[in-house]
Design brief:
Number of helices: 11
Distance between the termini: 84 Å
Number of domains: 2
InterPro entries: Calcineurin-like_PHP, Metallo-depent_PP-like, MPP_Shelphs
Pfam family, one: Metallophos
CATH topology of the largest domain: Purple Acid Phosphatase, chain A, domain 2
GO molecular function, one term: manganese ion binding
Largest sheet: 6 strands, mixed
Organism: Prunus persica
Number of strands: 14
Radius of gyration: 23 Å
Protein name: Calcineurin-like phosphoesterase domain-containing protein
């Protein structure tokens, strides 16, 4: 007796496979666009718990906040902190090689279970801003597979760009975003040809056709930057919504500018959640007040002045006393001409060395923290020579503000806590 149920089963299987085609096409298009924009990186699509849908209709219910960002981490066996990058991919990779986090040839993560903290200011002054965002995301995924962690943070330039303040964007930076927009729109047109996919949202919806005081030759790049980075824009929601504004790892507090007691009393986890929601377009057009102005967490310079005597050590001591277990604050934002250094009895550690060619083209340096207390600086400056004192190794350094001993290259150097 023939089994007349077989053909329908086969047909059902084929039908089921066909239903997957639109989503497979969408994933292919997204990967194709990423590859084109990032300079040749493959980022396979993945579910992102921090992502919110871009397709919203009038009258839709308010979107719930995504899961909380992690503000507090226990001490890490090995943590590398890198300062401001400002659109310089070459210096970014040089810093990561210096810390032995990436393979010198392939650029892949080789840092094992290490933790990387990038303290903000990927944007402005350089032309590789998107490429750095993509590269850090690639490393985030690779590190996670090895038990490592990549943490990215907001600087004042991230906040400015989401607000639409592009005063420090370069011509090359505008071109990079214009290229992104071209590929992104090509991807949308490809998706729109496939039945079964929701009509893609135009990233330029609501973006003005022109801007006062913007030359005609830069309008396309300016519009692309607005479309990508405005709250809930494709780039801001995908990459910047993962950024922390404040981070505590063991006894170290990380923040781009600095913290005041009022910020701590407001709530560090609350700050992270509110800024993340603002990036997702769930708040007002402008960033929360504590991200704006000279006393903002991403703008403060009270503890990073080039002259140590002008740093407010008493205020720093008070702030740290309000964060359980905190012993030091690690900051970027203010270029340290003499390299990474510490003031206020090494309780204020300043790690922005102006490495970007758009800043002072400084030699890359990174801060390494082992556990809670072991700190050292890795530098690419060949002027620093190793010296031995008994069983420990320290290095010479030019006079300047308070400092931590350094070592040229990736060699091991013991540093007093």
């Amino acid at each position: 007796m023939e089994d007349d149920r077989a053909p329908p089963a086969k047909e059902s299987s084929s039908s089921s496979a066909c239903k997957d085609v639109p989503n497979l096409l969408s994933s292919f298009v997204d990967t194709f666009v990423d590859f084109s924009v990032s300079g040749g990186l493959f980022l396979l699509p993945q579910n992102d718990q921090n992502a919110l849908p871009h397709h919203r209709n009038p009258g839709d219910d308010p979107l719930p906040s995504p899961p909380p960002l992690q503000t507090y981490y226990p001490p890490q066996d090995r943590l590398i902190a890198i300062g401001d990058l400002h659109g310089d991919l070459e210096k970014t990779k040089e810093s990561l090689r210096l810390a032995k986090l990436i393979d010198p040839e392939s650029g892949k993560w080789v840092g094992g279970s290490s933790t990387l903290v990038q303290i903000g200011d990927v944007f402005d002054r350089g032309g590789d801003e998107l490429k750095i965002l993509y590269y850090l995301e690639k490393l985030r995924r690779e590190a996670a597979r090895c038990g490592g962690t990549v943490i990215t943070m907001h600087g004042n330039h991230e906040i400015m760009n989401v607000e639409g303040d592009f005063r420090f964007a370069t011509h090359k930076g505008l071109d990079e975003f214009r290229g992104w927009a071209d590929w992104y729109c090509i991807g949308n047109r490809m998706k729109s040809l496939c039945k079964g996919l929701e009509e893609p949202k135009d990233p330029f919806d609501g973006v003005p056709l022109g801007f006062e005081n913007v030359k005609e030759e830069f309008v396309d790049g300016f519009r692309a930057r607005v479309a990508a980075l405005r709250p809930n824009g494709p780039i801001s929601s995908r990459f910047l919504a993962k950024n922390l504004t404040v981070l505590v790892v063991g006894d170290s507090v990380f923040v781009h500018g600095g913290l005041l007691a009022a910020h701590v009393s407001y709530g560090l986890e609350k700050i992270n959640a509110e800024v993340r929601d603002w990036v997702h377009g769930l708040k007002d057009r402008f960033a929360p007040e504590y991200c704006r102005g000279r006393n903002a967490v991403v703008w403060l310079r009270n503890f990073s002045h080039e002259f140590a005597e002008k740093c407010d050590c008493s205020a720093l001591e008070h702030v740290l006393s309000t964060i359980p277990g905190a012993k030091k604050m690690i900051m970027g934002h203010t270029i340290q001409e003499f390299g990474i250094n510490g003031v206020c009895e090494e309780r204020a550690i300043r790690i922005d060395v102006g490495m970007s060619k758009g800043c002072i083209n400084g030699l890359p340096e990174v801060l390494e923290i082992n556990g809670n207390s072991g700190m050292r600086i890795l530098t690419s400056n060949p002027l620093y020579e190793k010296k031995k004192y008994g069983s420990s190794v320290e290095s010479e350094r030019r006079p300047g503000p308070g400092f931590l001993p350094q070592e040229h290259g990736p060699k091991q150097v013991e540093v007093k806590a």
